[in-house]
Design goal:
By secondary structure, this protein is of the alpha+beta class. It has four helices and ten strands, in the order βααβββαβαβββββ.
Length: about 180
Amino acid sequence: MIAWLTVGTSELDAPTLARIRALLGEAFAGDFSNLDWTHALGGRHVLAWQDGQPLAHGALVPRRLLHQARSLRAGYVEALGVAPGWRKRGIGRAVMQRLEAELQAGYALGALSASDAGARFYEALGWTRWEGPTSVLTANGIVRTPDDDGSVYVHPLATTLDRRGELTCEWRAGDVW
């Protein structure tokens, strides 16, 4: 039987964090860097467990996004991964549904960056592709991120968004989106 856990990063001990990190390395076939891992920390984690091992993980971390001269508190989805032997069983969908419930607890919108392979998954869950330009707020001002255009998805909750307008995230090391 699958057990579910929703906790903050600070509630996870070092061995549990190590097991989650190993799961994500496996789920992303080795294409999950230490910077990717740090992006997943500092928020809420949804975990599917069986026999003391994680089967799936997703994190929702707080970020500020700028849109139409407004600073919006966003819940940003990071590190959604399912162990290869457990895919196509609805576990990833269940993780996302639990993360979406966490979004309701105080965020203006949800956001994430999807790979080409993941885009259909998020669209099926009601997430909407951002159609406008993307950018990042750096120490030198706002800088366009054209390589990220078309890969950002939003879940607007009660916030009105012009999906053809510019969406700006704060800078961070590694992938900014």
